[in-house]
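Long-time lurker. I teach an intro course on protein structure, and each term I like to show students one example going from raw sequence to a predicted 3D structure in token notation. This year I'd like something fresh instead of my usual example. Would anyone be willing to generate the tokens for the chain below so I can use it in lecture? Attribution to the forum is fine with me.
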Amino acid sequence: MSLLYARLSALITLLGLFMLVSWVAAQDPPTQTAVPPITVTAVSPSQINIGQSGILVVAGANFRDTTKIALLGVGDLPVTLVNPSEIRGAIPGDLTAGQYIVSVTDSQGGGSSSFTLTVVVPPTAIPPTAVPLPTDIPPIPSAIPVPTDIPGVPALLVRSFAANPATIKPGDTTTFTFDVVNQGNRTAQGVSVAVDPGGKFVPANGQANVLLPDLAVGAAFSVRLAVVAAKDTPDGPQTVGLTISFRDFTGQSYTSKGSLTVNVTAVAQSSQITLARYQFDPSPVIPGEPVTVTILLTNTGNETASQVLVSIPTDGILLAGPEGNSFPVGDIEAGQSASIDMPLIVSSTAKAGPQSQAVSISYIQKGETQNVPNASMTLNVARVDAPAPVMIVDSFETGFDVLKPGQEFTLTLNLRNIGNDQAKGLIVTFGGVESSGGGIDPTPGADASTTTNPSSTFAPIGSVGTQNVGDVPADKTKIVTLTQSFIVSGSVDSGIYPLPITLRYQRSDGSFSQDNLRASLPVIVPPQIRVQEANPMPEQVNAGDSLSLSLEIANRGRKAVNFTNAVITTENAEVISGEQTYLGPVRNDDQTTLEASFIALNEGPVVITVTLNYTDDLNRPQTIVQTYNLEALPPPPPIDFGTPPPDFGGNGGQEEQPISSRDLLGRVLLGLLGLGS
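-- Reply from a regular --
Happy to contribute to a lecture. Here you go:
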């Protein structure tokens, strides 16, 4: 029987080859259009007996001569292309009992692993002599044994990758797109892809590995993986090694290797130090005075510059300072910057205006000393004038955060001479001074005069507002302190007002100077709020009794008051209502009402505090606080209704007899009719 089936199979195979050759010869030349993927709709037979060979017929669409049929765990089958809708594969006769997955694939696209072929053991063996004729119907087995698991493992590999960009430089990033395909005969679970360590490429953005979903037999998954090339990656095509880790359904772990390729264009490694920025403190610099030069160095090359050193040549306008004229910076990595401060001294012979100063910058590269050519800075040298005093107001204090109209205060003024010459005969006037003629204190008969314009907001008290200080040396550490009493004008509005301060003195060269300074003083007009009780609260209350507070808040000022809310706090009392009440703005000559109620808790003093919150004319939070004090008395004893009145023996009177319910009702009716009482 086996021999007959083998011959029949060979005959069918030859017939199929003949038909295939005839069909191919009749086809038109292939075109350059896109090839559609193959599809599989049916596979027959789905079951054969052990030791039986035959033809596996696969139906579908778009079959080509590149279409393959394979039994997973066995291998590829000889395939005959009948037409684009049908292909056939030769089933070997040495298959063992079990279930085999039929894999139909095509290198130009498409595939299926949805059908199986079952090999079973027939219930009874047919004797060798009883060979049925080809036309006989083979016996139908009465029972099909349970198929056993197909032996095999998942097998993953990398296929069809692309790099974007395809050419990179050392230190650049490229993104690979590749497919991971399961060509085994079991599902791959827990799949992950990682870049092999120790190479010239590392994952970008801290991405250690890429996790993939479970891959069924014949399935593929597209992966995106970004890698960074090391700074020392050599020139030319470079390989990125991959390790694929996975397991099967039994928990057995597997790994497979893959590789990707990207083209690297290496560049020469060198350092490039540039003087990126510099600044001077002070600026402009003053001849003969110290100066701190801060420079910023940047390595624009692609290799670290070692032992960077900055030196100032001794033939320029900058001289060595307390730390010399050479300043080590250290190593500067590629693309990094380093800053250094250099304390130096400006030459006393430096000319005023912009001046050039050379800078020497050296570093070591690959064991050799390199110098930065033509590095220089431009300094702005101040023009040094004749010695002169410079009087400033160091600080002042009034003793109040803000002033009020009509308020008296004492101004404490601290002066300092920060110039390089003393101020002789210093006279301080609190107000503006207009001078004509020559001198601070003109001699009699001289054609000169001074006019003082006092402040219209702050009027001096106890003097005319002019004080003779005397000589003030050019000493930055010495402070001259003056005090002057003032009163604020009662008609000013809220605001910040200047107090003119005029300083007049004589220089050492005999010339006179006048400095017009000013101190800014804030003045706030307080709101004129009248708070009174609509119903006066009692001075005493029993503990446990409730009491109410009704306040009328009236604005008697010239401007509206921007109230925010009213907050009530208590001691030895509980607020029942009105603990926090929104008030809102109250216009001038208007009022609002605040209502609250309380319960006195215990015997003793009761304190009720009402805080009215508002913002002043400088938009600062302010408060108005009202306090009310009560005394809580102990509660009265309860009334005892169970004690009968005492019996005094009638005192000679007749004891009143009790009235029955009938008599009481009769008396009521007679009273209603006007017939009795």
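Some talking points for your students: Residues 125-133, 140-144, 441-446 have pLDDT under 50 and may be disordered. The chain has two helices and 48 strands.
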